[in-house]
Amino acid sequence: MILVDTSVWIAALRSGAGPEANQLRTLLDADEVAMAAPVRVEILTGASNKDRPLLRNLLSAIPLLYPTTATWERIDSWLDRAGKAGKHFGFADLLIASIAIEWKAPVWSLDKDFARMGRLGLISIHRF
Q: Which residue among 6, 83, 96, 117 is buried most deeply as judged by most CB within 10 Å?
């Protein structure tokens, strides 16, 4: 299972035929994609009123992963670890990354913050 970040979804939905779209389609066909609840919210927030109902329906076929108490505890420990390394991450990215860890899922993202989290050893990164 691969947790696909908002940045990949946006690239895939915008291009429809680019490398991200092709890889995402392959992963979806193989039932290898999961979605963190914050990613779903970010995608639907950015959708137009016209597109939102169809998009909501399409996304409903993807397993949705929610934060737990352990998610928040992990984020709290990461704040100290990242701070000691001189790194700072946004709230949503930390939440998405922590959910991915709970499910032992690598994160596929075009966002450089996730790459920095990977270099710190916080998460596993999916590369295609």
A: 96
Who contacts 71 (Cβ-Cβ below 8 Å, separation ≥6)? 95, 98, 99, 102
Q: What Å distances lie between residue 58 and 41, 73, 111, CA to CA?
A: 14, 32, 23
State the total domains in the chain: 1
Model confidence, pTM = 0.93
The CB-side HSE value for 50 (13 A sphere, CA atoms) comes to 0
DSSP secondary structure code for residue 4 in this structure: E
Q: What is the CATH number of the domain that holds 55?
A: 3.40.50.1010
Cβ count within 10 A of residue 46:
14
The per-residue pLDDT for range 4-24, each reduced to its tens digit, is 999 999 999 987 888 999 999
Place of tokens 């397993």: 63
